[in-house]
Amino acid sequence: MGKEIRQLREALLDLTGVLNRPQPDAALIAAAGVDLDRALFPLLARVERLGPLGIVELAELAGRDYSTVSRQVAKLESLGLVSRCPSPNDGRVRAAVITDQGRVMTDALDAARRKIIEELLAGWEAKEVGELARLLRKFADDALGWVKTL
């Protein structure tokens, strides 16, 4: 199993490298035909999928510092893509929630992302894609559970 763990680690490092490069985000934004600062798009996507989210929680999820995320959420709010409301978990916290305008943008980004992924998987069999999706979800869920124990 040592060889497989090394291969998995190397694949994860390669994927992390791809995901952290600015070019794929810029290409996705261009393909979606939206006008959005590349730094804001991961935050908008997390708010859409997991919101409402407080700044501290969003910063933790994005791996960014609180002050940076606070400024970026303020920018998203000024663009009309998110709004702030009392958190359902703690009324003292103002949470970011997606607006209708923000949802239109994330829908366009999702459609562009789907097209890119379909192109990447064009040579794969449906069974392989299903197995990849199932195993990645299982691994991600286990990793998220592990992080919560830290």
Structural features, described:
This protein is mainly α. The chain has one domain (2-123): Arc Repressor Mutant, subunit A, CATH 1.10.10.10. 70% of the residues lie in helices and 8% in strands. The chain has seven helices and three strands. A hairpin with a 7-residue loop joins strand 2 (82-86) and strand 3. Helix 2 packs across helix 6. It starts with a helix and ends with a helix.
Could you give the count of β-strands?
A: 3
Strand order of the largest sheet: 1-3-2
| CATH class value | Mainly Alpha
Taken together, the total number of domains comes to: 1
Distance between the termini: 25 Å
Helical fraction: over 70%
Number of helical stretches of at least 4 residues: 7
Corresponding CATH architecture: Orthogonal Bundle
| Parts with pLDDT < 50 across at least 5 consecutive residues | none
- On the 0-100 scale, what is the average pLDDT? 91
Explain briefly what this protein structure is.
The chain has 150 residues and is mostly helical.
